[in-house]
Amino acid sequence: MSETIRLKKGLNVPVKGDAECRLSKTVLPGIVAVQPSDFKGLLPRLLVKEGDKVLAGSPVLSDKKNPQILVCAPASGTVKEIVRGEKRKLLAVLIQTEDQQQYVEFNPGKIEEIDGAQVKEAMLSAGVWPWIIQRPYGIIADPAVTPKAIFISAFDSAPLSADADYAFEGEKKNLQAGIDALAKIAKVHVSFNAKTAAKSPLAGVKNAETHFFEGKHPAGNVGVQISNIDPIMKGETVWTVSLTGLCAIGKLFNSGKYDACRKVAVAGPKAIMPSYICTLPGMPMSYIKPWTGSDAEGIRIVSGNILSGTNVGMDGYLGFFDNCITIIGEGTEAELFGWIRPIRYKQFSTDHCYFSWLMPWRKYDMDTNLHGGPRAFLVSDSYYAKVLPMDIYPLFLVKACLAGDIDKMEKFGIYEVLPEDLALCEFVDPSKNNIQDIISKGIDLMLKEMA
Length: 451
Description:
By secondary structure, the protein is an alpha/beta fold. Helix content is about 20%, strand content about 20%. The protein has eleven helices and 20 strands. The strands form four sheets. The chain has a seven-stranded mixed β-sheet with strand order 1-14-13-12-15-10-11, with helices on one face. Strands 2-17-16-20-18-19 form a six-stranded mixed β-sheet, with no helix packed on it. Helix 3 (about 170-180) crosses helix 5 (about 245-255) and helix 8 (about 395-405) packs across helix 11 (about 435-450). The longest helix has 16 residues, at about 435-450. About 45% of the residues are buried.
């Protein structure tokens, strides 16, 4: 049995609103959106026009740099609108769905009878390739590159995230098929929560090396797992796949269809009876009104988890990679002399500023209030390092990104991280800096200068 990796650093954010493990409804939205912004590194070329009929699995976008990479329609219907922004930037392709879904029929071949090159070809032609994310930089993987390994996290430790054991219940056959296919390309690593591994849908997985993690968030982040299993060095490439993507790959080889359907957790302090829905990526957020109530004033709708998700609002859409929707209050109220009031039962602090540290079991009705504005960085790196179980220097990395110093960015670990890996650093940061945004801009600079 694999050795358990125990992480001593991290933080479980005690926020109210975990989704109850029950399916409230199945949603086939009337409109689904395909958004190029979901795919980092994609230079989109439009393959359809308004009025075109598409099937689930029909190509909608391709990458101008690598035309093999396709983004396909998650549902069948008619292209209703091509949404563009400033300078005719492509923002979204809106597809009006039909009641009876139709699928493109693919013939990927039997996994045991094909090789890695044929697996790649099948995944590219069926539009499931965008699920493969390349590190460093977190971009869609280059099919011409063979990675040193492929990493999969079988659990998510982020606050209010979907429970993987429930979300992928009954999908063991598809998950195993996805691993069997990826194992034809490179060695596969699967990481489990040591406490719940026995009931994981991937328990007993074959054709993969298994690892067990014990500790607080971000133990479930695949970047943290890579750092503790086989860190990325300069010149090396690894791929990562989420469980949602792995399931879609497995469905392709088992059924010959592109099926992006998933269970999505609707959670958060402002969610009414948090639970799960079964839906498609690109679902309009207007479909979650039963969870927000009739009055949505003062509420923020986040596609993804509370730490690293995207604020999309009620007019936005579910992200391609997301299986969680978080509903949280907008913190617009100012608190008079809050910084000198130690007895604040309803506030959480990572330090011993309030008495919340005496009640570790309690969960809080958190909102978006920063309780202060941006200010100078702390001098010590230890404040951020205590919640980041990776062998890097987060403060120095962030400063190097701000300075645009590529040599120091390389030295301090830019190849190992994505913004989500430093989300907790941003959460605990008393300087109120947008650390994830700084890291994202640093990665963009690396992509530009190192291309």
